[in-house]
Amino acid sequence: MCDRRESTTETAHPVVTRRSVFGVAGGGALVGVVTACGGDEADGTPIATTDEVPVGEGTIISEHEVVLTQPQEGVFRAFSTVCTHQGCDVDEVSGGEIHCPCHGSRFSIEDGSPVEGPADAPLEELEVRVEGDDIMLA
Asked: Is-contact 53 128, C-beta < 8 A?
């Protein structure tokens, strides 16, 4: 598992996006990041099953730092658990929203967009694929 946590009183992650990696280090560096942090789950290892993600809600897969949601039956979305406000981990999915405990930001289960601040940027969306009952990062 790739652990990017910093030593703070809150659970925090540095905000590193694909765009910033390309802009600063070039395309070759991204492969190393994906290899180091993506591991087996990007190679087809299931991270959850479809019955673990309630319709209209979602579930947090902490060991993979992923929030899986099912906004409509049979439609699955995945987002990073890292809040875009100050890098805390989101910790709950309820009422059709993803919640960050640090400062009260809430995000849509549909597209990860902020529905309540202070976060003003969406959660990073990740690609997933469903094979049978298994959900995998693409």
From this structure: no
